[in-house]
């Protein structure tokens, strides 16, 4: 069995659920490895793929490019930064709401009924 480049199993885990049936792991692995050798960061490719699929509209899901084609276009380069910025915003929102206390008030059954005033 061929040794997979570092980060590829995680990348393929993101890509595979959305891939076409003709999208092969072997070509994807070769493209991933080529980009690593050319100086790309594995985490950039992983984050780029996450952002690509998270922001994809339903009507575009049938037009997912082959993984190797997507990698060779360098599409992950800008998308990786966008994914990290989005994750940062989500983390900030969660932190802002982490100190919110949920309160529950029990009201009588007839609380919202109009009262007859004579």
From TrEMBL:
Top-level taxon of origin: Bacteria
Protein name (record): Uncharacterized protein
């Amino acid at each position: 069995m061929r040794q997979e480049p570092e980060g590829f199993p995680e990348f393929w885990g993101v890509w595979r659920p959305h891939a076409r049936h003709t999208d092969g792991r072997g070509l994807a692995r070769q493209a991933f490895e080529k980009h690593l050798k050319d100086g790309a960061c594995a985490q950039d490719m992983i984050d780029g793929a996450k952002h690509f699929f998270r922001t994809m509209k339903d009507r575009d899901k049938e037009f997912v490019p082959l993984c190797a084609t997507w990698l060779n276009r360098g599409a992950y380069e800008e998308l990786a930064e966008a994914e990290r910025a989005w994750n940062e915003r989500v983390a900030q929102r969660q932190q802002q709401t982490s100190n919110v206390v949920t309160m529950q008030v029990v009201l009588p059954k007839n609380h919202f009924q109009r009262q007859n005033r004579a």
